[in-house]
Write a structure and sequence with these properties.
Helices cover 64% and strands 5% of the residues. The N and C termini lie far apart (64 Å). A three-stranded antiparallel beta sheet has the order 1-3-2. It has five helices and three strands, in the order βααββααα. With 134 residues, the chain is mainly α.
Length: 134
């Protein structure tokens, strides 16, 4: 768990979820998977996050939007480590992103091929049934 500074603001889980468009269940799941850490607020016992963890959650959201899996995020977290060594994590992140770029390129190729097949088939049907006006 991250150390909390004495004057550091803790943001309640509900506020974090609402502000980022997430559910509290998602935040709890990410915590269960070891992607983030929370703190128990003394007054109510509910989870809360530091500004640092809020930045980390936003980073995770960006990587999820780019297609990274929970396992890949866990691997990156391990590379980042307790020492918060960005220089350890970035080379691994670049490798993961390269893999995803290749997957996207492959998918684009497949979709391009499918599009061509659809256009060709449409043209054959149009010619076969003398539908030249469309």
């Amino acid at each position: 768990m991250d150390k909390i500074l004495e004057d550091e603001e803790l943001i309640p889980i509900g506020d974090v979820a609402t502000s980022l468009g997430l559910t509290t269940r998602t935040l709890r799941y990410w915590e269960e998977m070891g992607l983030i850490n929370s703190y128990q607020r003394p007054e109510g016992g509910s989870r809360a996050y530091t500004p640092y963890m809020l930045r980390r959650i936003k980073f995770i959201m960006k990587l999820k939007a780019l297609g990274l899996t929970i396992r890949e995020l866990q691997d990156l977290g391990e590379a980042y480590g307790e020492a918060r060594r960005t220089d350890n994590m970035i080379p691994r992140l670049l490798d993961v992103l390269d893999i995803h770029i290749h997957k996207v390129d492959d998918k684009i190729g497949e979709l391009s091929s499918l599009r061509k097949e659809i256009v060709d088939y449409r043209q054959k049907m149009k010619e076969r049934f003398n539908l030249s006006k469309e």
